[in-house]
């Protein structure tokens, strides 16, 4: 179990490293390099627009790789998605800027970001199911938290690399070539991840489906036809987690450097430290999910996020490092409260024959509202001299939407009474309350 969970963690960390490297670059350098004819604000919005394309592609990747996962196994998804994202990320580091090839540069950047999103859309479902379907039911949230530690670990790798480069290079050197180094490193990480995943065994749940002939012929069609309500509820529920994370990790970098005049090194350091705490707390929050249930943790996290967004913006606007770190930290604690149990919760909501497609599409649809739109909306709403209260209002609204969606979902923890109509799998009969 430890070997399986560790392989999921490492692979997910590499995939999210690729994804987050782009987000950090979009906040710091992609605007002037690929959209130099725009004003600084418009260039930033354009860079975040290409950033958003990755989130739009992720549900499409979930449908593509989910079909593979539900028809041919979870293991092939892990290899194909890692290779797709790794190659696209490395290619971004080799891409000439606008000054060299003109309009072709932002167009190619857009295409590569789309391919990145396709790969990451397949990664989460495969990695989570590899762990969740091997785990004992009473410890599924804990073991499922291993791939959920991948995103913060990937972010720490991405931001740590960028932080080291911005601290050791001059601004001109970083703008010229330094920003490319993290993208080149993705190629090396991808090779290591492929070697680690090559020997993994298929999950017992999928082997049982294959042997009994109960695999879905068209899992995407089955999910969209029979589980559309569940898809919308899970996407709406998870959207605040994406919104909070990218408000902290991406938009705040722009706000701190451009509006508050703080150094990129300071902003990267504060965000990196807060995300490190988030990653450390993930398994402990998952243990609570195994003890008290998935739904209560998700409700608590979304309500905490909704209630913290106005204090978060107030603390960020002070420009004081300690206060900013406090704002980041509590926001990410709200996120980890819900996301620590999602790797158990989403698979338990779907029956095994469509689990890879359903769980991955629901997870990645949330990224469009929370991850794709938040940096763009927040940048557009953060004009003026005072604190950007419009950003707080946006994130609070998303938090309340998420809480309402989680309130409409059932509990799935083994041992709890839960609605079979919501997707109870035949391998997990509901136990008495």
The CATH topology turns out to be Growth Hormone, Chain: A
**Poorly predicted tracts of residues:** 417-433
The CATH homologous superfamily is named MFS general substrate transporter like domains
Please state the average pLDDT score. 86
**Spatial extent as radius of gyration:** 21 Å
The total beta strand count reads 0
**Strand portion, in percent?**
under 5%
Structural class: mainly alpha
**What CATH architecture would you give?**
Up-down Bundle
The coarse silhouette is: globular
Report the total helices. Answer: 18
Main sheet: strands, sense, barrel: none
Q: What's the number of domains?
A: 1
Q: Regarding CATH, which class?
A: Mainly Alpha
Oligomeric organization of the protein chains: single chain
Order of helices and strands: HHHHHHHHHHHHHHHHHH
Kindly report how far apart the N and C termini lie: 28 Å
Approximate helicity band:
over 70%
């Amino acid at each position: 179990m430890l070997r399986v969970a560790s392989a999921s963690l490492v692979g997910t960390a590499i995939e999210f490293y690729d994804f987050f490297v782009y987000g950090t670059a979009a906040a710091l350098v992609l605007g002037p390099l690929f959209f130099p004819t725009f004003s600084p604000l418009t260039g930033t919005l354009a860079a975040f627009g290409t950033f958003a394309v990755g989130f739009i592609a992720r549900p499409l990747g979930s449908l593509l790789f989910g079909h593979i996962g539900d028809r041919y196994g979870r293991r092939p998804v892990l290899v194909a998605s890692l290779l797709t994202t790794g190659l696209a990320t490395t290619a971004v580091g080799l891409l000439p800027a606008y000054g060299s090839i003109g309009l072709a540069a932002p167009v190619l950047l857009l295409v590569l970001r789309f391919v990145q999103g396709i790969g990451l859309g397949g990664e989460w479902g495969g990695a989570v199911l590899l762990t969740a379907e091997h785990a004992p039911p009473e410890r599924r949230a804990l073991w499922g938290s291993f791939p959920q530690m991948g995103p913060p670990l990937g972010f720490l790798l991405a931001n740590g690399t960028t932080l080291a480069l911005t601290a050791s290079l001059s601004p001109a050197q970083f703008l010229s070539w330094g920003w490319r180094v993290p993208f080149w490193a993705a190629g090396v990480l991808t090779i290591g991840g492929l070697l680690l995943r090559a020997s993994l065994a298929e999950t017992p749940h999928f082997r049982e489906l294959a042997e009994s002939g109960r695999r879905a012929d068209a899992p995407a069609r089955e999910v969209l036809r029979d589980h559309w309500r569940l898809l919308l509820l899970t996407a709406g529920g998870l959207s605040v987690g994406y919104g909070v994370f990218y408000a902290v990790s991406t938009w705040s970098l722009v706000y701190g450097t451009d509006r508050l005049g703080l150094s990129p090194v300071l902003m990267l350091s504060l965000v990196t430290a807060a995300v490190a705490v988030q990653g450390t707390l993930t398994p402990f929050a998952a243990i609570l999910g195994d003890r008290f249930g998935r739904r209560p943790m998700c409700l608590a996290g979304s309500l905490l996020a909704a209630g913290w967004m106005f204090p978060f913006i107030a603390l960020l606007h002070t420009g004081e490092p300690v206060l900013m770190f406090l704002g980041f930290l509590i926001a990410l604690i709200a996120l980890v409260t819900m996301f620590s149990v999602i790797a158990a919760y989403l698979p338990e909501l779907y029956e095994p024959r469509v689990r890879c497609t359903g769980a991955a599409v629901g997870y990645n649809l949330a990224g469009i509202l929370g991850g794709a739109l938040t940096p763009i909306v927040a940048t557009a709403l953060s004009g003026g001299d005072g604190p950007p209260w419009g950003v707080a209002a946006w994130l609070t609204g998303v938090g309340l939407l998420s809480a309402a969606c989680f309130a409409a979902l059932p509990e799935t923890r083994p041992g709890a009474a839960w609605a079979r109509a919501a997707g109870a799998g035949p391998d997990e009969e509901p136990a008495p309350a």
